[in-house]
Amino acid sequence: MPLSTQSQGEDEQYVLVATLDNARNLSNLLKAISFKDHAIFTVTPNGLKVTVEDCKCVQANAFIQADIFQEFTIKEDLIAFQVNLTVLLDCLNIFGGSIVAGISTALRMCYRGYGYPLTLFLEEGGVVTVCKINTEEPEEPIDFDFCSSNVTNKVILQSESLKEAFSDLDMTSEVLQITMSPNQPYFRLSTFGNSGSAHYDYNKDSDMMELFRCAETQTNRYKMSLLKPSTKALALSCKVSVRTDNRGVLSLQYLVRNDDGHICFVEFFCCPDEEVDEDL
Amino acid sequence: MNCVIEGSCIKVFGKAVHALSRIGDELWLDPMVKGLALRSVSSALSAYGGFLFSPLFFQQYSLRSLSEQHRQAIKCKVLMKSVLSLFRCLTSIERSVQECHISITTPTDRVMIQFICRHGITKTHNLSFQESEAVEAMFATHLCPNVLKAPARLLGDMVAHFPVFQEEITLSTTPLKVCLRNYQEGGKGHMKMTCTEMSLHPDEFDHFQIGEDSDITFCLKELRGILSFAASHCLPVSVHFGAAGNPVCFSVKDEVVDATVVLATLNNSESRGPPQPETPAPATPRCADAAVLPVGVCEEHERVLSSQGSPEWIHPLPRISGPTRLCEAEECASTTATPASTKICSLLFKALSSEEEDDEDDGCTARLPVLARYSDEDENDEDYPARSSTVRVEF
């Protein structure tokens, strides 16, 4: 493999070297959170976390654990930088996006440290491309302070039915209202569009509902425009967990199985639009 | 009104909505004792579609709303696209929806359409409606000289030969054959378009009765909906028509559904006349020019506002029995015995006060019979300089 012919000496200068036999395992996940141009990369010995934020009220994180990579070498405890995600995705797909059985793009991602570009070595069918993407000072990702102990309501659903629900959603509605309750309607997605209101109810005994743990009735509204990007992650996932905490902050966690069958996670946080106390 | 539709009937209902969506932008819901009627009228008022579902179609059917036991059933109209979006994907409805509940209630001022689906999922849609008296095209099919009846598949196969963008087709019938061809405006189009013509022998039809030779041209798009509906249920389609200028009625019936589409046809002189100068085609088909859809309003004598908003006439329906010429409105006013308020000759819906009704006879003399007019009136005038701004209909 051409990528492995790089001399050991060159590797010494990199603080991070990560290789993947199939770059799609990374690019698919990144595409799922690519609703903004810039992404913050946070790398630890555990793996890679890529963060995208919008309007200071929505945040998406993609987690790729170290063991997903064929090689993952990191010389520091924490590395953080910011890159243009659109450019990165273009590079990862530089050999074209077509999916042909048996052919995949191999990736070797290297980073020398603060101030250096992110270097990508991409190889497919014996052709090697080197991309160097400028890195920027990483912004501090928002800390939504979302912890399990504050979670009031949690459900885990099979993505299949939620995909249908989201595709049916009335996009003329500015908000998506989520009601979770130990009583009827249990789990309800509501929209208020031009032609009227629509409700999508899941019974707690539904066979699409893998887990139902709701302690109190909560109704929260979220801007549709902020949640819409999450549908990309939903499309890739097989299960999704929906949690709200006592402030109404929404956490969506998507379980994504990559091409090799390994599991990765994508997470969305969204702040509520307004407090709605009574059931509508 | 509240009703429940079960299982495979939901798809039938959805197909009716699809068929009506080809006709108009608004869907009238008309709950009656004899069943729930869905109706639509095209914006050019040249096409009408109605699907009547008898109470047997429903698992439950009640005119009274759940909360208001004594109030009369509400008749209303909703935006077609709102309802269509609920029934858009019929295959997924077939797969996952077990029951459909529809109710019209005033406290909420909403039409509620609820789908009870598999996996414990319930989808509820509350659509805003506008209270509106029902509209219905009154068409005396028993007076039509020509009647054809054929399996939907036959008619569907015939129209399948025409491109999707083909606006109008001409149905020519003689006692010896039936011919369908595409219609082009003027003569110029001959060199640019593919001309398709096909003929059928009377034996192909389940029923073939041609009382008089005729050549009618009507809008194809509006017809496809009902043909698709009939084909999916393997039902025969009946076609009632007469001379050019008279409406053509396509109907499909079975024990629980009665579907009717009435389309205006082009005036005879236009389909046979010398090539007219081409005008930029307005969005509505030219059939609207000579539209003579007799439209009746429901028994309560209330009117629906003309979509054009213009103060146009509603003329009494002239007799279709013979080749009488409709020239003067007085004539038509006098020939018709029925109270003018109940039968309407033109396609125009009008909000008439009682004073206007009284004036009708007097007013007739002052104006030529307006049978159909739409917003592109000026274009029409240029198109047919020989005429006045109104259109004559020959019977």
UniProtKB/TrEMBL annotation, chain A:
<keyword id="KW-0539">Nucleus</keyword>
<dbReference type="Pfam" id="PF02144">
    <property type="entry name" value="Rad1"/>
</dbReference>
<dbReference type="GO" id="GO:0030896">
    <property type="term" value="C:checkpoint clamp complex"/>
</dbReference>
<dbReference type="InterPro" id="IPR046938">
    <property type="entry name" value="DNA_clamp_sf"/>
</dbReference>
<dbReference type="GO" id="GO:0006281">
    <property type="term" value="P:DNA repair"/>
</dbReference>
<keyword id="KW-0227">DNA damage</keyword>
<dbReference type="InterPro" id="IPR003021">
    <property type="entry name" value="Rad1_Rec1_Rad17"/>
</dbReference>
<keyword id="KW-0234">DNA repair</keyword>
<comment type="function">
    <text>Component of the 9-1-1 cell-cycle checkpoint response complex that plays a major role in DNA repair. The 9-1-1 complex is recruited to DNA lesion upon damage by the RAD17-replication factor C (RFC) clamp loader complex. Acts then as a sliding clamp platform on DNA for several proteins involved in long-patch base excision repair (LP-BER).</text>
</comment>
<comment type="subunit">
    <text>Component of the toroidal 9-1-1 (RAD9-RAD1-HUS1) complex, composed of RAD9A, RAD1 and HUS1. The 9-1-1 complex associates with LIG1, POLB, FEN1, RAD17, HDAC1, RPA1 and RPA2. The 9-1-1 complex associates with the RAD17-RFC complex. RAD1 interacts with POLB, FEN1, HUS1, HUS1B, RAD9A and RAD9B. Interacts with DNAJC7. Interacts with RHNO1; interaction is direct.</text>
</comment>
<dbReference type="GO" id="GO:0000077">
    <property type="term" value="P:DNA damage checkpoint signaling"/>
</dbReference>
<protein>
    <recommendedName>
        <fullName>Cell cycle checkpoint protein RAD1</fullName>
    </recommendedName>
</protein>
<comment type="similarity">
    <text>Belongs to the rad1 family.</text>
</comment>
<dbReference type="InterPro" id="IPR003011">
    <property type="entry name" value="Cell_cycle_checkpoint_Rad1"/>
</dbReference>
From TrEMBL, chain B:
<keyword id="KW-0378">Hydrolase</keyword>
<dbReference type="InterPro" id="IPR007268">
    <property type="entry name" value="Rad9/Ddc1"/>
</dbReference>
<dbReference type="GO" id="GO:0030896">
    <property type="term" value="C:checkpoint clamp complex"/>
</dbReference>
<dbReference type="Pfam" id="PF04139">
    <property type="entry name" value="Rad9"/>
</dbReference>
<dbReference type="GO" id="GO:0031573">
    <property type="term" value="P:mitotic intra-S DNA damage checkpoint signaling"/>
</dbReference>
<protein>
    <recommendedName>
        <fullName>Cell cycle checkpoint control protein RAD9A</fullName>
        <ecNumber>3.1.11.2</ecNumber>
    </recommendedName>
</protein>
<dbReference type="GO" id="GO:0008311">
    <property type="term" value="F:double-stranded DNA 3'-5' DNA exonuclease activity"/>
</dbReference>
<dbReference type="GO" id="GO:0006281">
    <property type="term" value="P:DNA repair"/>
</dbReference>
<dbReference type="InterPro" id="IPR046938">
    <property type="entry name" value="DNA_clamp_sf"/>
</dbReference>
<comment type="similarity">
    <text>Belongs to the rad9 family.</text>
</comment>
<comment type="function">
    <text>Component of the 9-1-1 cell-cycle checkpoint response complex that plays a major role in DNA repair. The 9-1-1 complex is recruited to DNA lesion upon damage by the RAD17-replication factor C (RFC) clamp loader complex. Acts then as a sliding clamp platform on DNA for several proteins involved in long-patch base excision repair (LP-BER).</text>
</comment>
<keyword id="KW-0227">DNA damage</keyword>
<keyword id="KW-0597">Phosphoprotein</keyword>
<dbReference type="GO" id="GO:0071479">
    <property type="term" value="P:cellular response to ionizing radiation"/>
</dbReference>
<feature type="compositionally biased region" description="Acidic residues">
    <location>
        <begin position="354"/>
        <end position="363"/>
    </location>
</feature>
<keyword id="KW-0269">Exonuclease</keyword>
<keyword id="KW-0539">Nucleus</keyword>
<keyword id="KW-0540">Nuclease</keyword>
<feature type="region of interest" description="Disordered">
    <location>
        <begin position="354"/>
        <end position="395"/>
    </location>
</feature>
<dbReference type="GO" id="GO:0000076">
    <property type="term" value="P:DNA replication checkpoint signaling"/>
</dbReference>
